[in-house]
Amino acid sequence: MALNNVFATAPGGSQIPLVQLDQNFNAVGAMGITQCTATGTNSIVLTPFNNQPSVNNPPQNLQRFSFIAAGTSTGSVTVQIAGGGIFNLYLPGGAVQVGANGVALNSAYDIMFVSSLNNGAGGFVIISQTSGGLLVPRDYLAGLTLSNDSGNPNTVLDISQGVAVDDTQALAMTLTVAGYGKSTAAWAFGSGNGALDTGTIAANTWYHVFLIGQANGTVDALFSTSVSAPTMPNGFTFKRRLGSVKTNASAQLIPFTQFGDYFWWNSPTNDDISTVLTGATPINGTVNCPPGVQVLANWQAAAFNSSSNTSGNVRIYNPSFTDFVPTSTTGGPTLGFTDNASATTIVRLQASGWTLTNTSQQLRFESDATCSFALRVIGWLDTRGRFN
After folding, report:
1. What is the C-alpha to C-alpha distance for residues 24 and 7, in angstroms, rounded to an integer?
2. Residue 20 φ then ψ, to 5°
3. Maximum average pLDDT range among 8-22, 42-56, 243-257
4. Which of 386, 352, 357, 384 is nearest to 258 (CA)?
5. In the chain, where are the structural domains located?
6. For the residues 306-326, what does the mean pLDDT come to?
7. How far is CA 383 from CA 22, 172, 227, 229, 272, in A?
8. Does residue 2 carry a pLDDT above 50?
9. Per DSSP, what are the bridge partners of residue 46?
């Protein structure tokens, strides 16, 4: 950004008009974030602090402002600064105007004026929001680790303290209670109560775990078979998926361990896939990973052929990838198998790796020769919306 005046070339030698100094200081100040006080809820009026630079009407493109909200919005939100024009306020990305509950009482906001928004009329876009004194970026998620409760591991899930931005990027939700326990009973507010959004807990079923919130900062947790549209309790508008859990044949929570985005079964199941692969005939197989989302499945696999002098290669890949017959020199086989010449001893070759599933819990397999093939998933990596 060029300053208004270059003193070295100013006329009059050292006699520089003070107005030129003011112009330069205002230009430098506009490069930072202008701090403001705020009034109003849906029609927010910002007033820069006394020691802040002056603000043009409209503001300079990409100029930023910060304020603490004076109320929670109940409808579409606009912003006016220093008696200037009134402009729409948009969620991160600039496509959707902030609406009801999009601005929360006592939350701090960093917003930017973008002249190209609203078909060139200009508007403000939320850059970040502060909740509980913590500034968080888009898709932020920290802590909120899931675990089977030590006292009631079959029916209660514990959630650690943490912060997550909701999936509309409108609110940072903070869970301050350590070991927040929610059971598989019907939802009721508070730790120690149920979390199921509808119905009763079912056997052999996946449930997605959400942190849910209100604009006033109230949070709780919810279990749902829906990955994107859980039935929200009254008063709760915001949500963020924290992970997914599964029940066994007795409708009990299967034990697992979470570390960051990684999840592992404490006792992996038997083979998810046990089949015979026919050469050059790819097939899909369903594995023991969360449905509705793509995850990196951590698998263990084995292949063998009992015929003498038979060897081959098995490829394990995402179903959306292009099919091709794997060989030892083309395509990089995931798993190779072989046998001795007399066929008196079967050689069962094993491997492990990571492969991206589709949203139907599937992986795809192809071999260049007939073989017996088995695969099980021992865990998965789930980014939980952090890169949306």
Report:
1. 10
2. -70, -35
3. 243-257
4. 384
5. 32-131, 141-254, 273-381
6. 83
7. 49, 18, 14, 18, 23
8. no
9. 38, 81
Q: How far is it, in rounded angstroms, from Cα 361 to Cα 380? A: 11
DSSP state of 278: P
Residues in the chain, overall count: 388
Triad 48, 54, 60: Cα angle to 5°? 100
- What are 159-200's pLDDT values in tens digits? 999 999 999 888 888 898 889 999 999 999 999 999 999 999
Tracing tokens 């009407």 back to the chain, one arrives at: 57
Looking at the chain, list the stretches that DSSP marks H as alpha helix, in order from N- to C-terminal side.
18-30
> What average pLDDT does the segment 200-223 reach?
94
- Type of residue at 43: S
* Tokens at 215, concatenated: 């604009």
Q: Report the C-alpha dihedral over residues 47, 49, 53, 59, rounded to 10 degrees.
A: -20
Tens-digit pLDDT profile for residues 130-153: 765 445 688 899 999 999 999 999
- SS3 label, residue 22: helix
Contact 101, 73 (CB under 8 A): yes
